[in-house]
Specification:
- The chain has 3 domains: 80 residues, Winged helix-like DNA-binding domain superfamily/Winged helix DNA-binding domain (Arc Repressor Mutant, subunit A, Orthogonal Bundle), CATH 1.10.10; 96 residues, D-Maltodextrin-Binding Protein, domain 2 (3-Layer(aba) Sandwich), CATH 3.40.190.10; 95 residues, D-Maltodextrin-Binding Protein, domain 2 (3-Layer(aba) Sandwich), CATH 3.40.190.10.
- The chain has 10 helices and 12 strands.
- The protein is of the alpha/beta class and 301 residues long.
- The strands form 4 sheets. Strands 4-3-5-12-6 form a 5-stranded mixed beta sheet.
- The longest helix has 19 residues.
- The radius of gyration is 23 Å and the shape is globular.
Length: 301
């Protein structure tokens, strides 16, 4: 790399490198960038020559990043963020600027936060465009590989390129139909109850936020549903229970009775999470602030 000239590297090449790093696939990177696979391969060849390193090597049916590529990831991410910031105008006006975002979340934060946020924005003449990606407990990889700009999750990632802000704290409680049954008052009554879980995927369930001492002795769920919206229809008129955040008594589960759990549980936080590349984007900052203000207002009411 003795003939290295930093002026030979352009922003598109760096973006291609990061996209391949995030997807670990030339094919997926090409799809995300809207270019051909050969174009991605050609760009990688130029970067390999520039950095005097293979950067990505074959690993079975896929590829893996070399140590050099891994060391370049964060510096390149910072450089692209700096380049992007050059396009930001000094003053952001939400009434004039285009505001369009993709947010990954499950149906609880979606219904709890965004109807209020959007109605208030519309009343002010602000018309953001928001696309919601369904996700049970979304991970930071969504921000790196799917074009999402934000996610809301109870599990904030501990990554140097990911930022997060706590939105609200809530406790897990027991929901039930008071017309049919009494709530479980002891740990044994709780464990012996038939319950409904929300199962987002084969590895993600709403029950996993409960203490391990409880989840290891629970029976198999009587019913698994794919989202929180489905819970009331299955619980009303039955002896089934479900364990969810107490904030849901203000919306999704407001038709059910609820009581604290008959054992100790720590409060659970929901976090707003975003990638470092978007941290200084004025539109991103505006929407993050509106989300935080909306949550604070709803909880205060």
């Amino acid at each position: 790399m003795s003939n290295f000239d930093y002026l030979d590297i352009d922003g598109n090449a760096l973006r291609t490198f990061l996209t391949v790093m995030e997807t670990m696939s030339v094919t997926k990177a090409a799809d995300m960038l809207g270019v051909s696979q050969s174009a991605v391969s050609h760009t990688l060849d130029k970067l390999r020559s520039t950095f005097d390193d293979p950067l990505f090597v074959r690993d079975g049916r896929g590829i893996r990043a070399t140590a050099k590529a891994q060391s370049l990831r964060d510096p390149i991410d910072v450089i692209l963020g700096g380049i992007k910031s050059l396009s930001y105008e000094c003053k952001f006006d939400p009434l004039v600027e285009t505001i369009e975002f993709t947010i990954a979340t499950n149906d609880f934060p979606l219904g709890f936060i965004f109807p209020t946020l959007l109605k208030e924005a519309y009343a002010e003449g602000i018309k953001p465009i928001i696309h919601f990606v369904p996700a049970g407990i979304p991970s930071a990889n969504i921000l790196r590989t799917s074009g999402c700009q934000m996610l809301i999750t109870p599990a904030p990632p501990d990554k140097s390129d990911i930022f997060c802000e706590p939105l609200v704290q809530s406790k897990m409680v027991c929901f039930y139909d008071p017309k049919v049954r009494k709530p479980p008052k002891t740990r044994k009554q709780y464990v012996d109850s038939r319950y409904v879980e929300v199962r987002f995927s084969s590895t993600e369930s709403s029950q996993q936020v409960l203490p391990a001492a409880i989840t290891t002795i629970l029976n198999e769920p009587a019913l698994s549903v794919p989202n929180f919206n489905a819970l009331p229809a299955f619980i009303e008129g039955t002896d089934l229970i479900t364990t969810q955040l107490d904030l849901m008594n203000r919306g999704l589960l407001k038709t059910l009775g609820w009581v604290p759990l008959p054992f100790k549980v720590e409060p659970l936080s929901l976090y707003l999470v975003w990638h470092r590349r978007d941290n200084n984007d004025p539109a991103h900052q505006w929407l993050r602030q509106r989300i935080i203000e909306t949550v604070n207002s709803i909880v205060a009411d």
